[in-house]
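Problem 12. The chain below contains 139 residues. Write out its predicted structure in token notation.
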Amino acid sequence: MNIINIGTDIIECGRIARMIERHGEQFLQRVFTASEIAYCQSHRSSIERFAGRFAAKEAILKTLGTGWRHGISWLDMEVQNQKTGRPIVGLGGPTREQAERVGIQGIQISISHCRTHATAFALAVDVGTIAELSVEPLE
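Solution.
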């Protein structure tokens, strides 16, 4: 297994709360997949969960090294949870194509949050990972 790239992000939970308050469903549906929205809304601390997934997507984006070029979209990245609660990454569309172009075969993700902040760390690797891109890719 070789490390291709890393990415990290931190965000204030209040910023995500304000975006949801101002833009509601429009913001949620632009940034999060339906399953991410359902997951976050199923928890009492939904703002922290949304902030964690937002930070995760930013960290994933940093591993790709492209910014928002090449047609990359928020909805082409999905953070899912295994039954154990471990977060895993699903990629689709141009985001998956970019990952493959730069040799990324898997992305490991770690997310932490508290009442005020959420942070995420992504590690993009080329082979031998538990959470490979083929794990339930987005359609």
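Discussion. Residues 129-135 have pLDDT under 50 and may be disordered. Students who got a different answer should revisit the alignment rule from Section 12.3.
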